[in-house]
Specification:
Helix content of chain B: 10-25%
Number of helices of chain B: 7
Number of domains of chain A: 1
CATH superfamily of chain A: Beta-grasp domain
Helix content of chain A: 10-25%
Oligomer: heterodimer
Number of helices of chain A: 2
CATH class of chain A: Alpha Beta
Order of helices and strands of chain A: EEHEHEE
Structural class of chain A: alpha+beta
CATH architecture of chain A: Roll
Strand order of the largest sheet of chain A: 2-1-5-3-4
Radius of gyration of chain B: 24 Å
CATH topology of chain A: Ubiquitin-like (UB roll)
Strand content of chain B: 25-35%
Largest sheet of chain A: 5 strands, mixed
Distance between the termini of chain A: 32 Å
Order of helices and strands of chain B: EHEHEEHEEEEEEHEHEEEEEEEEEEHH
Strand content of chain A: 25-35%
């Protein structure tokens, strides 16, 4: 079993399940983009543009964000407690059940 | 005197794809002028990740982004391209004879027979915070997204918002220029350069500036001109204070920019093209690299190189509809020259 489930909160309380593979080295940003969510991700996933900002609402604990990601999050006008750049979250069996909201 | 340049193809964007287009155009004896908003050639490769290795350039198992740009500049040198760097193409007009006139932000005029947009991510523009009435005070009415001339703020009462390096640096700098400086930051700590953050704290402790942490600017007020600002703390407490200028500094984000207003077919912030020759909906205007979109589009440098080659064929046919052209190989014709 290599697929995991990610839940995207589209409106408060309403979550859509999307399935992602863990054997393709995908990031959450790539999965969200492939699922037609309005994620720009202009830099392509290098933590350089902050246009793939998501808020992690619940689910398994993730590896801590790196310095590049924290620096980029710092430049955003709005940051939430669970703010992350989705390009820096790898899809692995450990991210199964993650609940996120697209923060824009 | 306005600066007027005349060329065959004006290439907008000096990233790897724009640069390689100069080479392909040169093989067809077409001269090129390259314009870029950034002050150096190379686009994101020079600006964002010059020290990152790239592994998918054919023939280079590994090459640093900055080295790829250096090599491309060497490769196109025989064709003597001209450059306008640090200026953004703002306006664009198609003339009756099918040629074009482009104008940059700094007033440079470029006359050309075809246009190749190789604008990559677009141009980098300031990120705007969600503040009520923000846009009402843009354009010289009190909101500034960057500090072009610090002297503009001499003796003024200003509020800066942001927590990154530029917010810290400008707070420190303008502390000696403006009469009154307030820095508003939504967090409690700064991740910017440690010495700039330290200096801001020292200035605040000495009463030279006002530091408002755990707060956001939420409202702007004024009748035609910015007069007051409301700062709301994360605890919900709000304070409204008078000011002359508000400077939100939240970094840059890529935007399609003026290209989006030239009447070309656009889809999801990208220019739609015909993959036959990467022509846009406007004859004589082509789009190559990350800025374009078509079914099956891959945003890869190597795909952009391919697009540049095909685009030049299309541009040649547009410029010389009656001339016959046969493909020539560089191996047959020796070292390239114009």
């Amino acid at each position: 079993m290599t697929d995991i489930r990610i839940y995207v909160e589209e409106t408060p309380g309403q979550r859509r399940e999307i399935i992602g593979p863990t054997d393709m080295g995908l990031s959450l940003m790539e999965l969200l983009k492939a699922s037609d969510y309005p994620i720009q991700a202009t830099c392509g996933g290098m933590a350089l543009c902050a246009t793939c900002h998501v808020e992690v609402l619940a689910g398994p604990s993730l590896p801590e964000p790196g310095d590049d990601e924290l620096d980029m999050l710092e430049t955003l006008p709005v940051q939430h407690e669970g703010s992350r750049l989705s390009c820096q979250i790898r899809l692995t069996p450990n991210t199964d059940g993650l609940v996120v909201r697209i923060a824009g | 005197m306005p600066n007027i340049i005349s060329t065959d193809i004006c290439i907008i964007g000096a990233g790897p794809v724009g640069l390689f287009a100069v080479f392909e155009a040169g093989l067809l004896k077409l001269r090129c002028h390259v314009v870029d908003a950034l002050p150096q050639p190379g686009g994101q490769l020079s600006e964002i990740y010059p020290k990152k290795p790239i592994y998918d350039i054919p023939g280079f198992p590994e090459i640093l982004a900055g080295d790829l740009v250096t090599n491309l500049m060497r490769q196109i040198e025989p064709f003597h391209p001209s450059f306008t760097l640090g200026e953004r193409v703002e306006r664009f007009a198609k003339l009756e004879d099918g040629s074009f006139q482009l104008y940059t932000t700094d007033g440079t005029e470029i006359q050309c027979k075809a246009v190749a947009i190789a604008g990559g991510l677009g141009s980098f523009e300031p990120r705007k915070p969600a503040v009520e009435n923000l846009e009402r005070f843009e354009g010289g009415k009190g909101v500034h997204y960057m500090v072009r001339d610090p002297e503009h703020f001499r003796g003024k009462k200003i509020v800066i918002a942001g927590g990154g390096d530029s917010a810290l640096d400008w707070t420190n700098f303008l502390a000696n220029v403006a009469s009154d400086v307030t820095l508003v930051h939504r967090g409690t700590t700064f991740r910017g350069a440690a010495d700039s953050a330290e200096k801001v704290k020292t200035l605040a402790e000495a009463g030279k500036i006002k530091l408002v942490l755990s707060s956001n600017v939420t409202h702007l007020h004024g009748n035609g001109k910015l007069a007051e600002i409301t700062i709301t703390g994360n605890d919900g407490r709000a304070e409204t204070v008078p000011l002359d200028s508000f400077i939100p500094l939240f970094g840059l984000t890529p935007k399609l920019g003026p290209i989006g207003e030239w009447g070309l077919d656009i889809e999801d912030d990208a220019v739609k093209v015909n993959t036959l020759d990467y022509s846009t909906s406007l004859p004589g205007v082509f789009a190559i690299g990350d800025i374009n979109t078509y079914p099956g589009k891959l945003k890869l440098i190597l795909c952009g190189f391919h697009e540049a080659a095909l685009m030049c064929q299309g541009a040649f046919k547009y410029i010389y509809p009656d001339k016959k052209y046969t493909l020539k190989y560089t191996t047959v014709n020796g070292a390239p020259s114009l």
